[in-house]
Structure formats: structure tokens, C-alpha cells
Design brief:
313 residues; alpha/beta; four-stranded mixed beta sheet; 9 strands; globular
């Protein structure tokens, strides 16, 4: 009888491209971190601004993006329904989100697809005036695992130049639509990024090493994330979003120890920009602002604050 050795492996295979897996992390004793105004929990609101840069027949991609409200698809021609949903995000949804943020007086981070900002420069100007962060989210909203290493390097380079032109500042953070095994290498190689967020494996930032250089990772999350309204098993109503966000914050504030942690909230203008969903977001922000040990921070400020308290190794 021949046994398949893969069934009995105890470690990863050497030589596989990409970063090594770390299944231990901080373990039982994460570092004690405090945020703005000595807060215990740092809430980081991310606006994924992608509208106008997604895959469409209109841009010559010969495919339509599938992140749509209903499980219908047009395969061989332009899908005007999908396109118009994205247009809602850039025409109406983003401005509703800005109104929520302005009323609450909170800063946010944009995961900004460069072409999306180019196609709606008023959004780029508004986020710059507000002092929001524009982190790189690709040149277009494309899967980086579909690119060669050289193609991905060029996409990162073009995204940096574009975002700097539209917002007045180069991005210091990076998050792909779907990263490749080369993404972190290329981000570190470029040399101008303080952090990347291409991971979902922690409640705190952490340092890693890439080719002998220390590099900061500020993890993201897909749990309190409005993509769950339309993808997979997720939110059936705005109340589900609110309840999940509230329960997440309640547990982080009382997690059985005195350690500080961060909470990520992921938004899309075409999704949470709709009135009922924006209302749930506004109600959660109001709830969170009722606590003295909670702070809303940009992702770049979380990175800098963490680096000050947990220095680069």
C-alpha cells in the first residue's frame, strides 16, 4: 500500500513562494499598547474607494465585476446593472459617508484605487481637506495574484504616482484587492511604505522581516465589513452590522486583560453609502464615542503610535 506523504506533513514545504506562515504570533502575552488619549481600543474605519476602477467591459476587460447586490451575472457583454451600482457609490454613497464622518468628526483611512480617485477628483480633494489617509489599494481594483511580479511592481509604482497627484500626498500604507505571493516583497522593495494591511491574522499591528528588513503589518478584518451584506453568509439587515460591530467593541474593551487592541471596520460607498446601512454605521459610531477608552484613528496613526511603543526590532 502506498501512502500519500502530504497527509502526514507537520510543516510547510520549503521553497514555496511567499512569506512563511506564523501560527504563534504574540501568543498569550501581546504587548501593552495605548492609543490616542490613552484609549484601550483604536477603531479604524476604512473606506474602500474602488468605483470606476473595477473590471468592466467598458474598460476593455471582457469581464464584469461580480460584487453586486443580487446573484445575477451578464457574462458576454457590458452589465449596466452592475456598473450603475458602482456609480451609486461614487455619485451618492461616498457623499453620505462623508456626511456621517463630518458629523461625528472622525478621521478615516481610504483604501484608494488610484484610478477611482482620478475619475472622481472631488472625492480626492474632499478626503485631502478632511485630513483622511489615502492608502494604496492598487492602480485599479484588480487581483494582484493575477499579475506577474513585474506587472505588480509597475501597478504599485503607478498607484503611488497617481494618488500623490490627486490627493497631494503619497500613500504610506498598502492593501491589495487580493495580494500575491510577491506583494509584501514589492512593498518593502519600493521603500516608501510604513506598513501594509494585506493580512487578517491579528488584533494588533506587528513587525515582520522581509529580506532582512523590519516591516510593519497593520492587519485588516473581514468581520465588521459591509461586504457581508452582499457576499456569502453575512448581514441580512443593518441591525446585523450594528450588532456585530457593537459586540466586537464590547469584547475588545473587556477582553479579560488590560491590553489595548485595534478594531477594523470595512466600508464601500456603493454598499454602506445606501441610507439604511449608513444609518447603522452612524449609530455605531455614536455608541463607540460614548466611551472614554475608545479612539477613532487613521490606520497610518495606528502604525506610528504602535511603532513608538513597540520599536522596530
Amino acid at each position: 500500500m502506498t501512502l500519500n506523504p502530504q497527509f502526514y506533513r507537520q510543516s510547510d514545504v520549503e521553497g514555496i513562494p511567499g512569506p512563511p506562515r506564523d501560527l504563534i504570533g504574540y501568543g498569550e502575552h501581546p504587548p501593552r499598547v495605548r492609543w490616542h488619549n490613552d484609549a484601550k481600543v483604536a477603531i479604524q474605519v476604512v473606506v474602500n474607494y474602488e468605483e470606476g476602477s473595477e473590471k468592466t467591459f467598458a474598460m476593455g476587460d471582457q469581464v464584469n465585476d461580480g460584487m453586486y447586490e443580487l446573484p445575477f451575472a451578464v457574462d458576454d457583454q457590458r452589465d449596466l446593472a452592475v456598473e450603475s451600482m458602482y456609480e451609486y457609490g461614487s455619485r451618492a454613497g461616498i457623499w453620505r459617508l462623508f456626511r456621517v464622518f463630518d458629523k461625528a468628526n472622525i478621521p478615516v483611512t481610504f483604501f484608494a484605487a488610484a484610478v477611482a480617485l482620478e475619475r472622481n477628483p472631488e472625492v480626492a480633494a474632499k478626503l485631502a481637506r478632511r485630513g483622511d489617509e489615502a492608502a494604496g489599494h492598487g492602480f485599479r481594483w484588480s487581483n494582484h495574484y493575477e499579475m506577474t511580479r513585474d506587472e505588480e511592481r509597475e501597478a504599485i509604482k503607478r498607484a503611488i504616482a497617481s494618488i500623490e497627484k490627486t490627493t497631494g500626498s503619497r500613500p504610506e500604507g498598502w492593501y491589495c484587492r487580493e495580494m500575491s505571493v510577491n506583494t509584501r516583497d514589492l512593498v518593502v522593495e519600493e521603500g516608501g511604505f510604513l506598513y501594509d494591511s494585506d493580512t487578517y491574522n491579528e488584533d494588533l499591528p506587528y513587525w515582520t522581516t522581509v529580506h532582512g528588513r523590519s516591516h510593519l503589518v497593520v492587519p485588516y478584518s473581514l468581520v465588521v465589513n459591509d461586504a457581508r451584506y452582499i457576499l456569502g453568509t453575512g448581514y441580512g439587515s443593518p441591525e446585523h452590522f450594528f450588532e456585530t460591530a457593537k459586540a466586537s467593541l464590547d469584547r475588545l474593551r473587556n477582553d479579560g486583560d488590560d491590553l489595548g487592541r485595534m478594531m477594523s471596520i470595512g466600508l464601500h460607498p456603493r454598499i454602506t453609502g445606501n441610507p439604511a446601512r449608513a444609518d447603522a454605521l452612524a449609530r455605531f459610531i455614536e455608541y463607540a464615542q460614548g466611551f472614554d477608552d475608545v479612539a477613532f484613528m487613521r490606520r497610518i496613526d495606528i502604525a506610528r503610535t504602535f511603532a513608538e511603543q513597540v520599536p522596530r526590532p
